[in-house]
């Protein structure tokens, strides 16, 4: 730490009072531009507090900045390299991207919103808002995911329906099932039961095709099929699973 000269003491006092907001007699930590405090008179500062501030500064990138500055071989007399670390850290922290929670405030949502309240109000509750166009393929996939999310996480779920105002034709021309379960299922023998995609009440006259959307790394093939999966007519299917 650089020891200030006598003619700089007055400037430092003004800086502490006007910039840092620390009044005479108050205590605070200043580490690489990070101000912690001021502390109250009844608060006791111990060694672990100093270690905590040091860890916070290091996790925010001070150690990485210092390692790069060491490679530049800057002079270390009179704390010059330490000043460069402090100024670099403070500058990066000032313009760092910070993410804040965004609250969605809806107006009249009586007919376009489905609200499901968390099952256990005594536990921490997450707030989940999903804005979907119900007549899209994305909505077909999102619906079972939201159902599983509600079963596994204690959350307030709000689904906002945001369809297009006009449609020239029916946008959905497929039946879709997203296979996902909130937990493992077991059969009577105690073995893990396989998840299933079940379709019911399909039209009997239209020609249907069965396809599977799997992760790109998977190798998938049908094991047994009574009919041609590319040409399915339900009125000709006799086997029911």
From TrEMBL:
GO molecular function: UDP-glucose:glycoprotein glucosyltransferase activity; unfolded protein binding
Keyword match Transferase: yes
Annotated signal peptide: 1-21
Keywords for this protein: Signal, Transferase
Tagged with keyword Signal: yes
GO terms for cellular component: endoplasmic reticulum
Positions of the UDP-glucose:glycoprotein glucosyltransferase thioredoxin-like domain: 15-93
Protein name: UDP-glucose:Glycoprotein Glucosyltransferase
GO biological process, alphabetically ordered: ERAD pathway; protein N-linked glycosylation via asparagine
């Amino acid at each position: 730490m650089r020891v200030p000269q006598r003619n700089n003491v007055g400037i430092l006092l003004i800086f502490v009072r006007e910039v840092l907001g620390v009044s005479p007699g108050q205590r605070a930590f200043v580490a690489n531009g990070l101000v912690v405090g001021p502390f109250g008179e009844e608060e006791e500062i111990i060694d672990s507090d100093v270690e905590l501030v040091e860890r916070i500064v290091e996790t925010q990138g001070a150690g990485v900045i210092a390692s790069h500055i060491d490679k530049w071989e800057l002079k270390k007399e009179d704390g010059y390299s330490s000043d460069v670390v402090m100024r670099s850290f403070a500058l990066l922290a000032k313009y760092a991207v910070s993410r804040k929670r965004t609250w969605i405030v809806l107006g009249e949502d009586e007919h376009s919103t489905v609200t499901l309240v968390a099952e256990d109000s005594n536990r921490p509750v997450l707030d989940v808002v999903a804005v979907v166009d119900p007549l899209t393929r994305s909505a077909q996939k999102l619906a079972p995911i939201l159902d599983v999310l509600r079963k596994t996480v204690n959350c307030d779920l709000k689904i906002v329906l945001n369809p297009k105002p006009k449609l020239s034709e029916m946008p959905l021309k497929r039946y879709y099932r997203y296979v996902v379960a909130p937990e493992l299922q077991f059969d009577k023998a105690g073995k893990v039961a396989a998840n299933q995609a079940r379709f019911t009440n399909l039209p009997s006259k239209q020609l249907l095709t069965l396809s599977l959307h799997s992760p790109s790394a998977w190798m998938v093939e049908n094991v047994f099929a009574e009919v041609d999966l590319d040409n399915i007519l339900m009125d000709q299917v006799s086997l029911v699973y």
